[in-house]
């Protein structure tokens, strides 16, 4: 994330696994994309941009689609890896209706990005800066985006009463090294009772202890145990990074949630986008300095820390 220029992948890399919902083999190929294209899912001759307006379901995973219907499910972990590792533009080609679940984390996609390599492009990196708080309550869940000059930060709290998961909290400042080390390996999780219900409804047919941390009432059922003591809340952070990648640009802001999930993440992002006074597009100045400075343009009125100035063009992301 230190680059002030946009980045993409140097080459294409394919990752193959099974779809968590179908249980059948699927592949995803991530590769280079032009400046200002963001993340675009493709399959055959159809493509869907990874933006909030493409979200058509958030029940068990984030599902993207268009007027033709659902296009790709379980988009969030590959998006988290791309955004988390500081990639701005990429094509994400799928050969089936979902991205492979792999081990339930973003680590296999981070490995793929490492194999592809990241290259800088000849355009300044653009961000969406949160200008005022937006808040959403959904049942017992609460989420908000607030202005935050230091980049992107997530503060999450989860509370699973009557479960060994219990209450966990995590605060995360996004940069590629921290994402790789502290977040990318955290796996999807669930409770045995919920998984059984999903199976009988025909969902999550590919879910297993190979790609999910599963708890019963008293303990974790995976023989290898947890990757982090607080792996569940870290996975929620991973999902936030992936779900908020649907802003279309990296965010400068603070995301807070309590008992959140895909539905809440999407609702908060949608609320932000709907209020044109709540955000603006800014672009990075070059070079990025060691210490954040306030940069100003003669006719601008930027007061953002971090070496950014207000974009000289109108916001074009919705
Ligand atoms: Zn997830």
TrEMBL record:
Q: What is its EC number?
A: 3.5.1.108
What are the UniProt keywords, alphabetically? Answer: Hydrolase, Lipid A biosynthesis, Lipid biosynthesis, Lipid metabolism, Metal-binding, Zinc
In this protein, the active site sits at 262
Q: Which Pfam families match?
A: LpxC
User: What Gene3D superfamilies does this protein map onto?
Assistant: lpxc deacetylase, domain 1, lpxc deacetylase, domain 2
Residues binding Zn(2+) are 77, 235, 239
Q: Mention one GO biological process in which this protein takes part, according to its record.
A: lipid A biosynthetic process
> What is the main EC category here?
hydrolase
The yes or no answer to whether the keyword Metal-binding is present is yes
GO function terms (MF aspect): metal ion binding; UDP-3-O-acyl-N-acetylglucosamine deacetylase activity
Q: Which cofactor does it need?
A: Zn(2+)
Cellular component, GO annotation: membrane
Question: Known catalysed reaction(s)?
Answer: a UDP-3-O-[(3R)-3-hydroxyacyl]-N-acetyl-alpha-D-glucosamine + H2O = a UDP-3-O-[(3R)-3-hydroxyacyl]-alpha-D-glucosamine + acetate
Instruction: Write out the pathway annotation from the protein's UniProt entry.
Output: Glycolipid biosynthesis; lipid IV(A) biosynthesis; lipid IV(A) from (3R)-3-hydroxytetradecanoyl-[acyl-carrier-protein] and UDP-N-acetyl-alpha-D-glucosamine: step 2/6
Q: Which InterPro entries match?
A: Ribosomal_Su5_D2-typ_SF, UDP-acyl_GlcNac_deAcase, UDP-acyl_GlcNac_deAcase_C, UDP-acyl_N-AcGlcN_deAcase_N
Membership in a protein family: Belongs to the LpxC family.
Q: What does this protein do?
A: Catalyzes the hydrolysis of UDP-3-O-myristoyl-N-acetylglucosamine to form UDP-3-O-myristoylglucosamine and acetate, the committed step in lipid A biosynthesis.
Q: What is this protein called?
A: UDP-3-O-acyl-N-acetylglucosamine deacetylase
Specify the taxonomic lineage. Bacteria, Pseudomonadati, Pseudomonadota, Alphaproteobacteria, Hyphomicrobiales
